[in-house]
Design a protein that fits this description.
The structure is a single chain. The protein has about 110 residues and is α+β, with helices and mostly antiparallel strands. The chain has one domain: 2-Layer Sandwich (Ribosomal Protein L30, Chain: A). A 3-stranded antiparallel sheet has the order 2-1-3. Helix 2 crosses helix 3. The radius of gyration is 18 Å and the shape is globular.
């Protein structure tokens, strides 16, 4: 009698499907322009300018916006990329990157 063992690729795929998702949340501040937000979202998340503009307007209006929903590992990477993006050269008072947090997606 032989014992069936699960295929490792199949097991990894199942793990990814049941892994909880996480939101990457961009937080508002007054030290970055819309152009900066649109540019950063395009480079970090590959969001097209139209979608990035809607997100920039939402973060300005509501103080936060979900910019991605993904695995925890990728969410942490994207949060780090936002934090490392740098200051907005368009505003002299801008001293650093925007802030972001991650949270479990509901």
């Amino acid at each position: 009698m032989s014992v069936a063992t699960p295929d490792l690729d199949t097991a990894a795929a199942v793990d990814q499907r049941v892994s909880p998702l996480w939101n990457v949340v961009l937080l508002n501040d007054d030290d970055h322009t819309y152009d900066y937000v649109i540019e950063m979202l395009g480079r970090v998340f590959a969001h097209p300018p139209e979608r990035a503009l809607v997100m920039a307007q939402e973060v300005d209006r509501a103080g936060r916006v979900v910019v991605d929903t993904t695995t925890r590992e990728r969410a942490e990477l994207k949060q780090e990329q936002i934090h490392a993006y740098g200051a907005d050269w368009r505003l002299p008072r801008s001293k650093g990157s925007m802030s972001a947090e991650i949270e479990p997606a509901t």
